[in-house]
Amino acid sequence: MPYKKLPVLEIDGKPVAQSNAVARYLARKYDLMGKDEWDAMICDELVDTLEDLKQDDMGGLRICSGP
To answer: Is residue 61 one of the residues assigned to a domain?
Structure first.
């Protein structure tokens, strides 16, 4: 298991780690990146923004499960 972390996707018997890399691979493979380069860039921008928020302790966002 690369980096000893999940998620891991196995492609042709080879493990691939890093969730963003896996997501981008699958999006390209199954034609989910939009109709042109602009759409693909917007997809990348959204993924990178979510990663920035995650790295910044969710950017101050909190999920509450009660009062």
So the answer is: no
Angstrom distance (rounded) from CA 39 to CA 65: 35
pLDDT, tens digit, for every residue of 7-64? Answer: 899 999 999 988 888 888 888 899 988 899 999 999 889 888 888 877 766 555 555 5
Query: Would 58 be classed as within a structural domain?
Result: no
Model pTM?
0.64
- Backbone phi, then psi, for 8, in 5-degree steps? -135, 130
27 lies in some domain: yes
Q: Fill in the amino acid letter for 15.
A: P
In a domain, 52, yes or no: no
Q: Measure the CA–CA gap between 39 and 3, rounded to whole angstroms.
A: 31
Structural domain harbouring 37:
1-45
In contact, 53 and 59? CB cutoff 8 Å: yes
